[in-house]
Structure formats: structure tokens, C-alpha cells
């Protein structure tokens, strides 16, 4: 199968730029460490750059000090970003988001929305209540982006060909919240472009948002990255996450923890003679076999 072989050949080596983008809402847990290692190995295996972005856009969820804890853990685990770390709350980032909002507004692609949470309870797709209404903008309002029924297709490295349509997933979606904070969908697109990301490696649990991002990328005339959504790590049927109290990983024994993370990533790590963290992370980068995750949506821990 020559086509299959081509899929797994290395991408343009000098061009590859990947990232890990944690939210500083708590310490890293095993699920987020798996995400860090997957993105790191995928970047290193392609001789690319690996960047770190602290996604602190939702300041209401930020837990002070966790950004530094995450950075220290990554360093302890032998993963050092190749460029300065960026924060979404930085003034420059915020002014970039504002410029993009202005651009979309000038193109008549946005509108204010005064719908309450209560009014939208139980709805997955926004029905466009405020779209063609005269809205009193002195009221507290969010800003939504107009969407249409449009199919977006992408060939996910691990999940294969995907087809998504915002009309069935989200409808017109918020890009700025009522409290004045910019929304994740807008920030992630602007940041990935600013960091020149060529491949987005992240968990399958946020794969649904890809069409919204592809749409924004098109509107802004940016370059579409490749997508690689790895399987979610579950325990007893539910996702390992901060919300369900996944234990934070400690910096005490990075080798053993990384060994476990690599097993979860189906990499079958050996027992190295010299059990040092740098040996193991180097082994993982050199022997990274992304095809082993193909079509896996869930890995039970
Ligand atoms: Zn509304």
C-alpha cells in the first residue's frame, strides 16, 4: 500500500512546528502528560520545533502558580520548549485577538448576543436568536461569529478522514464572552498562526472544535495546519481529567511515569539499561511510532 506508506513518511523536516498548550488550571496529570509527550515526540521525530503556550485565556479558571508548576514538570521530564513560552493574557496576544475581532466585525461577520445561559439551556447548536435582531448593546452581551452550513474535511493523522459541519455542531459561536474575555476558538487560531504551528497535536476530546477553527482560519486567510487527535486516556470508563480528580503527577520519579505514559501511547518502551529520564525521552523521540495510535479513540488506563 504505497499511499499508506506515504502517510507515515516524515513531513517536511525543517518546516515542522508543533506545540503543547496546557491551561494553568491545575497541575499536570497523567492525561495531560501523555498529551505533552505525544506532541513532543511527534515534533522531535519530524526534526521539528516544539513550542509551549500557556492557555490562560479564561482568567477566571486560572490557578495562580500552576503555570510555573507545569513548566517545571515539563523540564524535569526532559521536555524543553525551543522558543520563549507565550501566554494568552500577554498584552500582545490580547491586542492580536482584538485586531482579529475588529477585522471580522468590519466584514459584517459578527453580532452581539444577549441570550442568557438559561435561554440556551439544553441546546448544542445556537439557534441564531440574536442574529437578525436589533440588539441593545448597552446590555451585557457576547459577540458571536456568523456561520453557515458548510462541510469541513480534514485528514486526521490518527483518526483518519473527518467531516464536520458547524450547522450541526455549534451554529454561530461566541468569540468574545459577556465578561469581555476572548473565547478559546478565536485565541487558539490566532496563536497557532502567530507561532507558525504546522501540526496541531491534541486529544480527541476537542476534535469537535476543529471545524470552527478551520472556518476562522479560512476567514482570516491563514494557513491550515495538519491535525492529529490522539486517543483519550480513560479510567473506569471516564476521561482522566482535572475535573474527575486525576492525580497530579509528581516530579519524584519521571522515568517510571514517562514509561507508563509511553505504554499508554502504545510505544512499548524497553527497560533501558541506564534508567535516566533523558535516555528515555530520547529513546521515545527516536523510536516514535505514531501509526500505533491509528484509529484508537480511547485507551484504558
Ligand atoms: Zn443571542
Walk me through this protein's architecture.
Mean pLDDT is 92; it is low at 1-13. The protein has 301 residues and is an alpha/beta fold. Helix content is 32%, strand content 18%. The chain has a 3-stranded parallel β-sheet with strand order 1-2-3. A 3-stranded antiparallel β-sheet has the order 4-5-8. It has a 3-stranded mixed β-sheet with strand order 12-11-13, with helices on one face. It has helices spanning 2-7, 30-45, 66-76, 91-106, 166-169, 184-194, 210-219, 254-264, 277-286; strands at residues 17-20, 49-54, 86-87, 110-113, 142-145, 151-156, 160-165, 173-176, 199-203, 226-230, 232-235, 238-239, 298-300. It has one domain (10-300): HUPs (Rossmann fold, 3-Layer(aba) Sandwich), CATH 3.40.50. The protein is elongated, with a radius of gyration of 20 Å. Zinc ion binds at residues 113-115, 129-130.
Quick synopsis:
The chain has 301 residues and is of the alpha/beta class.
Main traits of this protein?
single chain, 301 residues, alpha/beta, Rossmann fold, three-stranded parallel β-sheet, three-stranded antiparallel β-sheet, 9 helices, 18% strand, elongated, disordered N terminus, binds zinc ion
Fold topology:
Elements: H1 2-7, E1 17-20, H2 30-45, E2 49-54, H3 66-76, E3 86-87, H4 91-106, E4 110-113, E5 142-145, E6 151-156, E7 160-165, H5 166-169, E8 173-176, H6 184-194, E9 199-203, H7 210-219, E10 226-230, E11 232-235, E12 238-239, H8 254-264, H9 277-286, E13 298-300
Parallel strand pairs: 1-2, 2-3, 9-10, 11-13
Antiparallel strand pairs: 4-5, 5-8, 6-7, 11-12
Helix pairs in contact: 2-8, 2-9, 4-6, 6-7, 8-9
Bound molecules: zinc ion.
